Structure formats: structure tokens, C-alpha cells
């Protein structure tokens, strides 16, 4: 019976295919005139490529040389103090950038210029200029540079509204892959709002099959109107070459970073909702009576949260913002990333079986306690840490739970602490003393004990270290 059904299916396919052949033959035609034979992306490339630049970044890397006591046993007590003298090494990185303002404002990826001591930009006409870093934003993996071109007006790429993109749209990727020189590749938009694929905190990447390779980072993804729709940022590859999985940061997110840079901000302060959120799974959707998994479940809210002030509470599901449906927490985070403090937003949410709406005003995370930032030095295993009192503002900057309290590591400089503590770790207790604020930690450090018992929290897990 199965064989007969399969044979019948094949016969139907052949029959339909045979019936379609005359129609296809009528539609497919040899180009009839010269313009049809000369269809090309060349006019678009000529208009857009001059606004794409090469970015060269030089960094000085310090490498610790082995010393006579370069052994883990000694290093846990003395840190790098007994190691050999550090050796400096010059490292060069190559990427791409896009001119977005005629006066010399350029956007690239933050990872292209991170830690650079010298940045140079080469225009499409091969002229080179020293570049000044105007704004670096790790959370979006974007950076804004400026070059001094006097009164000259440089070619620019206008920014498109990336919310209007659709899967299947034709695109061009322009950059400097492998340092071979400016290169243009073509493809389509393969997917939108891709998450969990890169370093950005605001994950809503444009996926494209236009060939993107190392060196393309910071380059342009443009549409058929010659507008910038994204900054090429990363690829998925096992070999280091393009396999048709490239990801770009949407132009709407780029626009917020550029706007902040042009207003003179050194650090971007973004809207804060003051809560912990969870994607709605099928089980959660079933329990809430939703037709399918969608929206964002509120796990907790800070009392100062604009959502809490508007009456939302734990267990509510945020379904949309300003009429735009929200599928997951990353999408909610992205919508915040392209918004501004002071914006009024209409929130649609579900409580039980009831759908409700409420208006909120976006705000910055409040600094409820003084930071009292402290850089620890001296003969202590905590030397090298930069710590501060936790507040919603500090927690938001570090990307940790908004309800967290205590003392947090905001940076780790050279010193023994670098071996076991990292940015974002929360110090809970030292030698049996609960660390509730920086002043308490300072008093413990002044005691200069012979041994150390350090408790800290990382990713919700508490860890204890006994040293000495």
C-alpha cells in the first residue's frame, strides 16, 4: 500500500510539473535589450562604498614573564610581586567603519578598538587620519570615532529604520575582510531579531548570508536604497571563514549610540525597568491560558521600578510596548536600548486572564546609595580590586540582578585578586565579617590578618576561598 501511494504522489508531481512547463517557458526570457543585460549593483556600490573606511587599532599588551617564584603556591600569597618584570608587546587589529556624519563621525565595533592606544582610519581614497575615540559602549559592542578633516564634507551613509526590514530583502555587505582591501558581497536578510549570538547586551541581530569574514567587523550592511541598516559584527564559523551566517547590529540601535556621542556623553545611560524577567515557555503559557508562548514574565520588581509604580507586579506578563508585540526578554531589552529616558511608553500586559494597559515614563536606574568607590592596594589578596556600594544604577551598569545589595567588584586591575575575582562579583564576607558597605570592607582590610577567608557571590552562587 505504501509503495502505491508513493508512486501516485510521484505521478502527481510529474503531472503538475509537466503542466507548468509551458507557463515557466513563457515567463523566463532572454534579456531583450542592453539595460536588461547590464543589471548590476555597481551604481549602488559607487554611491555607498566611499562611506566605508578601514580602522587600524594598536594596543600595548603587557605579558608577565616567569620569575624565580612563579609558582601557584607562592603566587597565592604574593601575587605578581615575585614574578619577572612585565614585557610589553604591540598588537595590531584591523576592522572596518562607517561614516555617519560628514564632519568625520565614524561608527565601528567596540571590539575592534578596545584597549587601543592608537587608532587610525583609512578612507576609501587611501588617505589616512588619526582617530579620536568619542564614545565606547561595551553593552552594544559599538564605538564612535572622530577624524579631523577640516571643512571637508565626507560621504556618509544615511541610517535606515531597521524596524522596517523583512526577511528576504536584498543587502550588500561592505568592509575589509582579511585586510585584502575594500570588498563588497551580496545576499539577503536571512532572519531578524536573532538572540544569544554575540557580545551585545541588546540582542536583536540581523542575520545575513552576504559573505562576512574577519576584518568586516564594523563595516556596513546596506539596503537597495543605499541606506545603512546594520553594522556587521560577527560570524558563526568553525574555520574562520564565511559560511553564510553573519550578524549585524541594527541601525536603530546604532542611531542611539551616535546620538549620545554627538551630544557629548562619555557614557550612555539607558532606560531602566528595574526588574527580573523570564521568557514564557510552553508550560508557563499553558498555566496562564495563553494560546502560545509569548511575552515576558515578571519575576521580581524593584520598588523604584516604573513598572511597579504603575501597578504591575510579580506574575504579570508584559505582552507589548507601544503596540509592538514582545516575544522574549531579549526583545524587551532591545526596545529599551533604542528608547530614551523620559519617553512615555504604553505597556500592554496580562494578569491572569485579563489584558490591561498602562502608561509609564522611562527613567534611569537610581543611585540609592553613594558608590564610595575604592581601589584596594597593599599586602592583601584583594589588592587590585575596584569596589563600590551596590545600587540599582551600579547593578544596571554591570548587568547583575537589580535587587542585589552589598559591595560589588566594578573593575580588576593588576594584583593578586585578578586570579580569583572578576568584575561583577559581590563580596559577601571577609574573615567572618559581613560586607554590607565599602566602609566595612575598608575596616576589615586595616586589620591586616595573617589569613583570609573570603566569601563572594558570582552568578547567584556563593564561593568561599581560604588563603594563607
Please explain how this structure is put together.
- The chain folds into three domains: 41-267, Thrombin, subunit H (Beta Barrel); 275-361, PDZ domain (Pdz3 Domain), CATH 2.30.42.10; 374-467, Pdz3 Domain, CATH 2.30.42.
- The chain is built from eleven helices and 25 strands.
- It has helices spanning 2-27, 34-37, 42-48, 72-78, 110-113, 251-262, 282-288, 306-309, 329-337, 392-398, 438-446, and strands spanning 52-64, 86-101, 105-109, 118-122, 128-137, 142-147, 170-175, 183-194, 205-208, 220-222, 228-235, 246-250, 275-279, 296-301, 317-321, 324-325, 344-351, 354-361, 374-375, 385-389, 407-412, 426-430, 433-434, 452-458, 461-467.
- Strands 19, 20, 21, 22, 23, 24 and 25 form a seven-stranded antiparallel β-sheet that branches. Strands 1-2-3-6-5-4 form a six-stranded antiparallel barrel.
- A hairpin with a 7-residue loop joins β7 and β8 (183-194).
- The longest helix is centred in the first third of the chain and has 26 residues, at 2-27.
Amino acid at each position: 500500500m505504501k509503495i502505491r501511494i508513493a508512486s501516485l504522489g510521484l505521478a502527481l508531481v510529474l503531472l503538475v510539473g509537466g503542466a507548468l512547463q509551458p507557463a515557466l517557458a513563457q515567463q523566463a526570457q532572454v534579456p531583450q535589450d542592453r539595460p536588461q543585460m547590464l543589471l548590476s549593483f555597481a551604481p549602488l556600490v559607487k554611491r555607498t562604498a566611499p562611506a566605508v573606511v578601514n580602522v587600524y587599532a594598536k594596543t600595548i599588551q603587557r605579558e608577565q614573564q616567569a620569575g624565580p617564584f612563579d609558582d601557584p603556591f607562592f603566587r597565592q600569597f604574593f601575587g605578581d610581586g615575585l614574578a619577572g618584570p612585565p614585557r610589553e608587546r604591540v598588537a595590531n587589529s584591523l576592522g572596518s567603519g562607517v561614516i555617519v556624519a560628514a564632519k568625520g563621525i565614524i561608527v565601528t565595533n567596540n571590539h575592534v578598538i578596545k584597549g587601543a592606544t592608537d587608532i587610525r582610519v583609512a578612507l576609501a581614497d587611501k588617505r589616512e587620519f588619526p582617530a579620536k575615540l568619542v564614545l565606547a559602549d561595551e553593552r552594544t559592542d559599538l564605538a564612535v570615532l572622530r577624524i579631523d578633516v577640516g571643512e571637508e564634507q565626507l560621504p556618509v551613509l544615511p541610517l535606515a529604520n531597521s524596524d522596517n526590514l523583512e526577511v528576504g530583502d536584498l543587502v550588500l555587505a561592505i568592509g575589509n575582510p582579511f585586510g585584502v582591501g575594500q570588498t563588497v558581497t551580496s545576499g539577503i536578510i536571512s532572519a531578524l531579531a536573532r538572540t544569544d549570538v554575540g557580545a551585545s547586551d541588546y540582542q536583536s541581530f540581523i542575520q545575513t548570508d552576504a559573505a562576512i569574514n574577519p576584518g568586516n567587523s564594523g563595516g556596513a550592511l546596506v539596503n537597495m536604497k543605499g541606506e545603512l541598516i546594520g553594522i556587521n559584527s560577527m560570524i558563526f564559523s568553525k574555520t574562520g571563514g564565511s559560511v553564510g551566517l553573519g550578524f549585524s547590529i541594527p541601525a536603530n540601535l546604532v542611531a542611539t549610540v551616535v546620538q549620545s556621542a554627538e551630544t557629548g556623553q562619555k557614557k550612555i545611560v539607558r532606560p531602566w525597568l528595574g526588574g527580573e524577567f523570564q521568557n514564557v515557555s510552553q508550560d508557563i503559557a499553558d498555566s496562564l491560558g495563553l494560546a502560545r508562548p509569548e511575552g515576558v514574565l515578571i519575576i521580581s520588581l524593584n520598588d523604584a521600578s516604573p513598572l511597579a509604580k504603575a501597578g504591575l507586579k510579580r506574575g504579570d506578563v508584559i505582552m507589548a510596548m507601544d503596540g509592538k508585540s514582545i516575544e522574549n526578554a531579549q526583545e524587551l531589552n532591545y526596545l529599551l536600548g533604542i528608547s530614551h529616558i523620559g519617553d512615555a511608553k504604553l505597556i500592554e500586559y496580562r494578569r491572569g486572564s485579563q489584558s490591561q494597559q498602562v502608561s509609564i515614563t522611562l527613567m534611569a536606574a537610581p543611585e540609592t546609595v553613594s558608590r564610595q568607590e575604592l581601589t584596594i592596594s597593599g599586602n592583601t589578596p584583594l589588592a587590585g580590586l575596584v569596589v563600590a556600594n551596590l545600587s540599582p544604577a551600579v547593578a544596571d551598569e554591570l548587568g547583575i540582578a537589580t535587587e542585589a545589595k552589598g559591595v560589588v567588584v566594578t573593575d580588576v586591575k593588576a594584583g593578586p585578586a585578578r586570579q580569583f575575582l572578576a568584575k561583577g562579583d559581590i563580596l559577601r564576607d571577609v574573615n567572618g565579617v559581613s560586607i554590607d558597605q565599602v566602609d566595612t570592607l575598608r575596616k576589615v582590610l586595616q586589620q591586616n590578618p595573617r589569613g583570609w577567608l573570603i566569601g563572594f557571590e558570582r552568578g547567584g552562587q556563593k564561593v568561599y576561598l581560604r588563603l594563607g
